Amino acid sequence: MAVIENTWLGKQITVAENEVALLYRNKKFEKVLSAGRHHVHGRLCTLEINSFDSNDLYFDDPSALQMVRDHQEIAELLHEWRVDKNEVGLLYHNDVLQGIAFPGGTLLVWKKAGKLELKKVSLSEGLEVDRSLLNEIRLRNVNQSQRLLVEPGSRLQVPVLESVVPAGHIGMLYVDGVLQQELKAGLYGFWQINHEMEVKLLDLRQKTLEVSGQEILTKDRVSIRVNLTAGLRIVDARQVAESQSDHEAFAYRALQLALREAVGTRTLDQLLEDKLHINTTVKDQVVAELEAEGIRLERVGVKDIVLPGEIRTILNRVVEAQKAAEANVIKRREETAATRSLHNTAKMMENNAILLRLKELEALEKVSEKVQNLNVYGGIDQLMKQTVRLG
């Protein structure tokens, strides 16, 4: 900032080496003051100094363009560059990118700031920013800090649309609402000056879609809750982008309607007996519909069927009664088999004395295991008779 000191004849002004000072007398531009000390006469007039730092590069003044056109002395201190309507300018200071000039704009920079160069890029050759230039813009952060002078009425905006497409995704580039390009995974930049640009991301990986809590009436008017899960994958990104604003909502509705039809045409007993019916019916109904929109149905299955409390209680009772009946049948079957076995054994012993005696000895062995002392009188025959009597 220039230093101003009052003297008895006027003002003494000191201008630093990196400054450019403009002297105004009675609100009218008079001259440019170079670096050094200046004595300005003017006790009976109004003197003003408007100073600029040339290290800031840009001649920032609301009336800069008018001043350059009206005063040759100021114009000689500046580089004045115009950028055509179909190009952008890249301002380099000492070979380092400093800023971006918009189409149709005028750039004013101080010559004494150092080595300055304006490189121009034609927008008619394409809107995509070269990768090396994009890296330079990101490194210097010039995309977010614009101080370049443009024509009055021009609309300032971020000049470069930066977009990162993650792995497993695809980017759909829209220019002024029209789909222009599909972008694979990577970093991209596009000149969005005078355009409305947007990159929409679509996930190409398999996505699980849950159709949960569906309250549906069966054919026999039983209300059940069904939870369905499905695996979806985008196979035609352009078709999805052009036909559906929300492809997941579209797939959800298709699965929901197919699920209701699959359940509503079967009774509860039929659904419980054939649980795969819902899976196959839903898949058969929605596969073609989803493929027409660029979506592949890779799997579908019922997670669970939730019955109302009273129906669940009744079914539990039915199952309990069925199991009890099955157990009773098994018990009677075993009793019949045991009785038949005893009958066959008795018939065999009736016609075979030796077999009868072996059976008696077997019974005697079992009884004797529980007797501590046994006195035998009268031989083996008396033993067998008395043992049988004790039993």
From TrEMBL:
**Which terms in the GO cellular component ontology are assigned?**
plasma membrane
Biological process terms from the Gene Ontology for this record are: proteolysis
Which keywords has UniProt assigned to this entry?
Hydrolase, Protease
- Chief place of localization: membrane
The organism's superkingdom is given as Bacteria
How is this protein positioned relative to the membrane?
A: Single-pass membrane protein
Q: What is this protein called?
A: Stomatin/prohibitin-family membrane protease subunit
Q: Where in the cell is it found?
A: Membrane
Q: Which residues form the signal peptide?
A: none
Q: Could you tell me which SUPFAM superfamilies the record lists for this protein?
A: Band 7/SPFH domain
Q: Which family does it belong to?
A: Belongs to the band 7/mec-2 family.
Keyword Magnesium attributed: no
Taxon lineage: Bacteria, Pseudomonadati, Pseudomonadota, Gammaproteobacteria, Oceanospirillales
Among the GO molecular function terms of this UniProt record, one is: peptidase activity
